[in-house]
Write a structure and sequence with these properties.
153 residues; two-stranded antiparallel sheet; 6 helices
Length: 153
Amino acid sequence: RQMRQRKRHTGDNADGATVSKKLRRLRSAQHQLKLNARVVEHDKRHLRSVYGEDCSMTGRRRHTSCLALRASINDRLANLERHFIDPDGVPGREWYKHALFGPEPERWIGETAHQPFPALAAALESQDSRRLRLSEKGIADIIHEAAWFLRED
């Protein structure tokens, strides 16, 4: 959904085709995240089909294996969001660290408008191609890191 919103946003740019080509890294990172999310889904299906919903079974070894797999899945999903944090923050709003979405600039506190890929949106708005390349690379790196984190056991 966020990628569709990003594409819509890039379409508003007069040089939309060029911008789309420049976001290849981001599309690649999104694809990798999607593939690795499928690995987690596979692990969840395996857990349910082999061990059941609640790991209540006879045999200590099977029970221990079930608990370990469930803990691995839970840890990967619970900690995934932390990987979307950019330590440098969004340029111009360095206090905001989330790379995938953020509040729209100049909104009052309490308003609920969210902006996908705020660093990219700011770079597009400023029409700074260097800033756009750096933002896209940084966000793609963050998403790739999150994708590989999902694959870890």
